[in-house]
Hints:
Strand content: 25-35%
Bound molecules: dioxothiomolybdenum(VI) ion
Largest sheet: 7 strands, mixed
Number of domains: 3
CATH class of the largest domain: Alpha Beta
Structural class: alpha+beta
Helix content: 10-25%
Distance between the termini: 63 Å
Number of helices: 17
Radius of gyration: 27 Å
Shape: globular
CATH architecture of the largest domain: 2-Layer Sandwich
Strand order of the largest sheet: 3-7-1-15-12-13-14
Amino acid sequence: MTTLETRRVVGAGIDRVDAPLKVTGTAHYPNDFSYPGMVHAALVGSTVAAGRIRGIDASEAQSAPGVLTVITHLTAPRLERGPMTLLGPSPPAPMQDDRILHYGQHIAIVVADTPEQARHAASLVRVEYDPAEAVLDVDDPRAQIVENPWGLDTERGDVAAGFAQADVVVEGTYTTPDNTNNPLGLMATIASWHGDSLTVHDSTQWPHNVRTTLATVFQVPESGVRVLAPFVGGGFGAGLRVWSHVILTALAAREVKHPVKLVLTRPQMFTSVGHRPNSVQRIKVGVTREGDLVAIEHYGMSSVAMEDDDYEPVSFGSAVAYDCPNVLTQDRQARLNIPCPGSMRAPAEGQGNFALECAIDEAAYAIGMDPLEFRLRNYAEEHPLLGLPWSSKALRECYREGAERFGWSRRDPEVGSMRDGRWLVGYGVAGVSYPFYQVPCQARASLRRDGSAYVRSAATDIGTGTYTVMTQLAAELLGLDVGRVRFDLGDSDMPYSPQAGGSGLTGALANAVHTACRNLVREFLDVVRDDEASPLRGAAPDDVTVTDGRLHRVGTPEQGESYTDILARHGLEELSADGRSTPPRAEEIGMATSGAFGAKFVEVRVDPGLGLLRVARVVSAIDGGRILNEKTATSQIVGGTVGGISQAMFEETATDAGTGRIANATFGDYLMPVNADVPDMEVIFCGGPDRATAVGTKGVGEVGLVGVAAAIGNAIHHATGRRLRALPFTIDQLL
Ligand code: MOS
């Protein structure tokens, strides 16, 4: 068998295989599709955050030009709630009663001949409410508290005894705001029914989940539901769940008996497709004068919607980041009248790492130790909860090589001592131990008579490079040029794929593709097993390798023949094979399966007179296991770093305290970094293939973001002596 080490396709920074389609406008995103007779939908959102709908008058909307129907809770059929998924329960079914649980809740869907007519008619739906006082703040005593929502609270050792032993204890309360995912592409759904069969184009990160959910909600056979998402205009987590607008579009299409297209507006993107929930975190770190961590206590409180669940164990990362004998982590959620939160760009880790890595920095300062040295001294050589060796961990190399590249040794440890004219200069570091979210996956590989390969799985490429890296991997494993391999995705009729999310897709899919390609080579050897004409007759898979479309015995290249010769001689048009991957289990392999690790080094400039903050440089040193394409992987880390700068300095979804309305639900008001805010960013990859899987890839989707906020906060402290504990870091905090 060909091995990954033998060729130079995997890892090479080749251009994206889908780039020509994208730059010529021929990549079709969900809202680019049209069907004959297609009509358009628009949503009506609640203008209060809590209460009941007293009356809803759709008569004027109904008689507006072009309108086919207006569906409200009074006319909507009973719908099943979607199923439990690997990411938790589905959001509640829409428009099932008169209750209002949050601002922007979908309370009517209008269908008309054109999008403009639908939107106009939506503005004519008259709603009267019996409003109730909304619960909008995690500190509101009326908020129902959910304890240990995911069963991930941890406790080891004796935390009280640990703090008693500490020479220094640092303590702080850190807050992070609501953030909104805001992929650039407005999320769109097109639904088209033929009897009980349903075809859907959707801005999803997980086509199979949409298929299963719609089959459940509408009680139709899953085999008749097809979900297509060959291109998606970004995700950031917003496309992980099947939100109510998707269900309402399918409902509307069934009622009007036409294909229906719905495109969310930008303000609706703030209330319809999830968001990062805010958090309040209390963290306490105990340390000896020699620099040993002896106790960590981390309490996280996040907001969650009234009748939904969302996975945000913000404190959990503190249980696995360092070698510390006494650690307690505990998470709670407060139920509020807010739109459903959902995963957003490193959910939970993005918030929790900020608190932990600032507190670790503060502890290092408190005992006068270099913060980098402090992290290395308390390095977790083993998985702290499992007591097992990591399947790979090159975080030490990340710290060392990152520090070297950054020039950490030029740092004067004294706070406020480095200057550049009127600017105070600060250096900050943060470490990242990203969890590995592992899921089963399937793929199918085919080789055709013309010598080309076709490999597919129902995954998505949300801009991350899935098409490209899987093409490279299949090309290498099948011994073909990249140009002879087509990798396809984004169709729920293809073999099962999990979501593009949780930094887990590349690892899961790579191992499924790996197995499919190995099985395909086996298929060829099976065909020639008793073939007297074949130099490969009777060869075992391990005796054979593939080069330039030719199978041959290892060590004797002349003893072999091409795929096409075998297919032609046996009268076959193609051969196919399936592959699947299942996540390795720690107890079976005797190792803790590792996610990505990283070290972030940041230089900031602060103008103390004006409260200005500039990020001047960022060096990211990342252990992502085997890197399948150094160019797309680097882009992932660069993009994540921009997301981290955005989290640290800009993004904040503002909810009006009285009404629950999102006050900044436009791209004009919701701040994000522009080019001038983004400095030079360097990315280096450390470590090698992970030992837990055949391909050895870990995810690099989210590790790029995590740690940036803490490193910026720590650099601000180095520059100014101030500990900022509330994101985003705004001018008022720096004055
Ligand atoms: Mo990501 S928040 O797992 O799409």
